Amino acid sequence: MKFKEKINTWIFDLDNTLYSADSGIFQQVHKLMGEFISKNLKMDMVEAKKLQSKYYKQHGTTLRGLMDNHGIEPDYFLDEVHKLDYSIVGPDEILKKELEKIQGRKIIYTNANKKHVVDVLERINLANFFDEIFDIKMANYIPKPEIRPYEQIIDIFNINPSSSAMFDDIAKNLVPAKKVGFTPVWVDAGYENFSDDIQASKDYLDYSTRNLSSFLKDINEEII
Ligand SMILES: [Mg+2]
Question: Is 144 within 8 Å of 125 (Cβ atoms)?
């Protein structure tokens, strides 16, 4: 069955999915996280970066590791690491055009906070375009790829998983997506740091694309 016939709910990750991994925003967040750890846990940047990547791997997000091991207050962390220079992100008119043609409900599902979503959507000219935003606070700070927030998003927005597709640049985030019944689409941003995760997730990646706009174009033209 073609995407258009099957899917009426479209769930999109934000960072590196709806705008390019090359924008530099990702690097800014990473740097700010390292600085946050260094400052708040009083360690040098080398140690801080090690801890950041350890928590990311073990807890799904650096934040979760900081909450569980150090009692860090999540909103404080999220505010600090999203003090970003958003001027480097700009609109993508081709993507916008294809998104506008897609029929049905469109939802943002992110491990970041709502303020970051609103700021980015403003910059990429998609403010007020999405029907819902499910952020890390709504998920009780439980990040993708833990399965609980996926169950929660289904519940909160009254989603029928079999008519829903989820798009994410992180392959392992699509494992629970497939398990709850969404059609998973991996937006391959081309970075190699997470290749172990990609290997471990590959049986769950029903679709993959290097270019979200052309994938959506294929859906709109009923090629897929
Ligand atoms: Mg992402």
Answer: no
| Any domain includes 86 | no
Q: What is the dihedral of CA 134, 138, 142, 143, to 10 degrees?
A: 20
The secondary element (H helix, E strand) that includes residue 107 is strand 105-109
**How far, in Å, is the centroid of ligand 1 from the Cα of 12?**
9
Q: Domain span at residue 159? A: 3-19+91-220
- Average pLDDT, consecutive stretches of 10 residues, N- to C-terminus, the chain (224 residues): 95 94 85 98 98 93 95 96 92 96 97 95 96 97 95 98 97 96 94 71 94 97 96
Determine the distance separating the centroid of ligand 1 and the alpha carbon of 111, expressed in angstroms.
Answer: 8
Quote the CA–CA distance of 82 and 32 in Å, as a whole number: 8
Burial class (CB in 10 A: 0-12, 13-18, 19+), 142: middle
**Are 67 and 125 in a shared domain?**
no
Helix (H) or strand (E) holding 184: strand 183-187
Distance in Å, CA 131 to ligand 1 centroid: 19
**Total structural domains in the chain?**
2
Q: pTM of the entire structure?
A: 0.93
